[in-house]
Amino acid sequence: MNIVVCGKVIPASTVTIEIDSNTKRMVRKGVTHELDPAAASAVEEGLRLTEKHGGAVTLVTMGISDVTIGIRNALAMGATSAVHILDDAVAGSDTLGTAKVLAAAIKKQPFDLVICATESSDSYSGIVPGQLARLLGIPPLSFAKEITVDGDKIAIKRQSESGYDVVESTLPALVAVSSGINEPRYPQLRGIMAAKKKEIKVYTAADLGLAPDQVGEKGAREKVLTIGRPPKREAGTVVTDEGEGGKRIADFLAEIKVI
Amino acid sequence: MAETIWVYAEVGDDRITTTSLEMLTKAAEVGKAEAILLGPAPHDAAQTLAKHGASKIYRSADSVYSDYLTLPAAETVAGLIEKHKPSVMLFASSYTGRDLVANLSARLDCGAISDVGDFQLKDGSLEATIPALGASYQNTSTLVSQGTKLLLVRPKSFEPKVNEQPVAVEEVPASSDEALRKVHVKERVTVKREGPQLEGAKIVVSGGRGLKGEENFAMLKELADLLGGAVGASRAAVDAGWVPYAMQIGQTGKTVKPDIYIACGISGAVQHLSGMKTSKTIISINKDPEAPIFQYSDFGVVGDLFKIIPQLIEELKTRKGA
Prior knowledge:
The structure holds two protein chains of two kinds.
Chain A: E1 2-6, E2 9-11, E3 19-20, E4 25-26, E5 33-35, H1 37-53, E6 56-62, H2 68-77, E7 81-85, H3 95-106, E8 113-117, H4 128-136, E9 140-150, E10 153-159, E11 163-170, E12 173-177, H5 189-195, E13 200-203, H6 216-219, E14 222-228, E15 237-240, H7 245-255
Parallel strand pairs in A: 1-6, 1-8, 6-7, 7-13, 8-12, 9-12
Antiparallel strand pairs in A: 2-5, 3-4, 9-10, 10-11
Helix pairs in contact in A: 2-5, 3-4
Chain B: E1 4-9, E2 11-12, E3 15-16, H1 18-30, E4 32-38, H2 45-51, E5 56-60, H3 64-67, H4 71-84, E6 88-92, H5 95-107, E7 113-116, E8 118-122, E9 125-130, E10 138-143, E11 149-153, E12 168-171, E13 184-190, E14 203-207, H6 217-227, E15 230-233, H7 235-239, E16 260-264, H8 270-276, E17 281-286, E18 299-302, H9 305-321
Parallel strand pairs in B: 1-4, 1-6, 4-5, 5-12, 6-11, 7-11, 14-15, 14-16, 16-17, 17-18
Antiparallel strand pairs in B: 2-3, 8-9, 9-10
Helix pairs in contact in B: 4-5, 6-9
């Protein structure tokens, strides 16, 4: 089974995000990056499925050269190869632009299943997987907390407001996995060494047959008008517990007349 | 001429969801509000939508919309959009809403904006506000594509109001195309929930990673019971398997807006803040003085929750007895 995992490499969780006031974009250059934990879960799910059913996992990502560290991480976990769309022309893409680039790159690979995270941990828009499924013309299965594959049948447990739904479809398909679907493995030394020899294919937008006005900032349907820090919420009282913490909360609740 | 704003109405727990009514209220304020209602719905659904501002409802009760995910509804909505060309269409940031917007934005090549907290139309151009969360940036965005603008709206962004309209209901045919029946809902499993519902609770006591284990949620339950509230959890606690997903508060999960929100052992990641930050009063307990949750708290205590919560419980019992 050929599995393509789409994952994002994002500024590390320790980095304070800065915005470039000219481009109104997140500053990514020169910032420490890591494989998005949500993407790591998608990679892990792909690896588990190929360990059971055979096949290969290909990571597809787009981003600046700083993201190579995250690609290596996915390869060290066990992904077979990677595709990196590296091109200034795709910078500033909105969700649909991103989906168009990923779809064009995926079409160059053999695939039975595409796995994405439900949402990235840096922008949370959560609609790229569904856009991608539409562009690839394959069934979208979303919010999966469990995946089962049997021949060309695929079933997931899909989160719902009241519990979960059992949802079935046929391959090829796209599954967006929820966080918590698994605990991603840590790369082992052997994996890290092996990753150095694995192939990372690099594409530009032109390689994928995409015109400059289809992707990147030029192609974006969504335009950011203004951006800024929100007004600070008026700071409340923060006290350190010195044995009276519980009582202090009870006092506060009494003060606002809850008790 | 008033702009036409469509709302994709959803049904949950056998009634029109509150978020649908919130969006309709806003739509009726901005322009002419109309609703799309697909799939089985309670008998008074149209009436409820009209009561909150819908002047027209496009309706199909066909079960294809509940038996098969996304594709049949996207097909019908795309057809209606192409025919009637509303200025804006609003969807809730729900499972259904996200999947539909994703499909439609690619199909109509129009893009979409996620996580919208408010929007306005000025001379036909759209300005959507995406509220900031935690350390992130607040921004306003627009869609430059021609045609209908698709927005995913965060729950609890607007106050639902009664604004009764004379309503016209138009039955729309469901597509019988087999190709749309690809994602089949075979079974719906309800996970049993204990205690009061999170939605609508006046007081919510919520636990995160700091709770350290499933067994410690009993302590939160006791606290919530004393206050007449409901228990919630952060994604970290749900991911760890301590409590069911139905209790999750956050971007993926429920959005709550109680009078009092007590965050226990929750650091305040963007994911979580998104689901509770508009609570009237926020109280937090965390051992890390740098935890972002304190920036959102009206009252915070830095310390060991395993000492503070039992003391609070004892204190409440004593004061109740007094």
